[in-house]
Amino acid sequence: MALKTDEIKGIAFDAYGTLFNIASIDFLLEQVFDDRARQIAAYWRRKQLEYTWLRTLMGQYKDFYDITRDALYYALEATNTSATEAQVAEVMQQYYHLDVYPEVKTALAQLREKYRLAILSNANPSLLEKAVAHNGLEELLDAIISADQIHQYKPVPGIYRLAEEGLGFPAKNLLFASSNTWDVAGATAFGLHTVWIHRKRSVMERLDVKPAITASNLSELAEMLL
């Protein structure tokens, strides 16, 4: 579906991997767990996603911070890694202090001149609000929208419906941007216009839906829309 940019009134952004760079967590994992860091990170991220999907299917909601901590404990056990409560707390705290990708703040400021902007994320409000404050993005966003509002996680349709409520426009006037292919697929299936922020080597999901456009980062997206 070709994107008619004159119809777009608001843009919702996924948080992790799209706006916020989780590389600083990798760096901290290396400091804390040395040569096991890469293996821990792989287990951790996979289980973090799986637990959001499983808990939604099970009807057993936990907020994203708790799910992330559970996934970290799983990763530590799966890699036979011992860790103190202090070490786990130190790693988890990094989620509050993630830096945005280098181009994000400038691109958001440019897009803010024409569009209403929001974050639409699985993360709970405290994680998002502190990361936003850490990067000084408060004045660039009209809304911070969390899955915590409905106690379900992406890619259930209700999550993407929150973008309509949070930005005040119907799906036909909204663009959703994410670096996560499954997230792009979910938003597209719901009816949002979508952009895949293709930051890393990956391929689009084979779920019979495709993004309207693809951009390598937010600067390229801003060039397309402005």
Question: Can you walk through the features of this model?
Answer:
The chain starts with 9 loop residues before the first strand and ends with a helix. The protein is built from 9 helices and 8 strands. It has 2 domains: 5-20 and 100-225, HAD superfamily/HAD-like (Rossmann fold, 3-Layer(aba) Sandwich), CATH 3.40.50; 23-97, Orthogonal Bundle (DNA polymerase, domain 1). A 6-stranded parallel β-sheet has the order 5-4-1-6-7-8, with helices on both faces. Strands 2-3 form a two-stranded antiparallel ribbon. Helices cover 46% and strands 14% of the residues. The chain has helices at residues 23-33, 37-58, 64-78, 85-93, 104-112, 125-134, 157-167, 181-190, 218-225; strands at residues 10-13, 20-21, 99-100, 116-121, 143-146, 174-178, 193-197, 213-215. With 226 residues, the protein is α/β, with parallel strands linked by helices.
- Named at the architecture level, the CATH assignment of the largest domain is 3-Layer(aba) Sandwich
> What is the mean predicted local confidence, pLDDT?
96
Largest sheet: 6 strands, parallel
Overall form: globular
Please write the CATH class name of the largest domain: Alpha Beta
Give the amount of beta strand, in percent: 5-15%
Strand element count: 8
Q: Roughly how many Å is the radius of gyration?
A: 17 Å
What is the domain tally? 2
Q: What is the CATH fold-level name of the largest domain?
A: Rossmann fold
Read across the widest sheet, the strand sequence of neighbours is 5-4-1-6-7-8
CATH-assigned homologous superfamily of the largest domain = HAD superfamily/HAD-like
Distance between the termini: 19 Å
Helical fraction: 40-55%
Based on secondary structure, the structural category is alpha/beta
Number of helices: 9
Uncertain segments? none
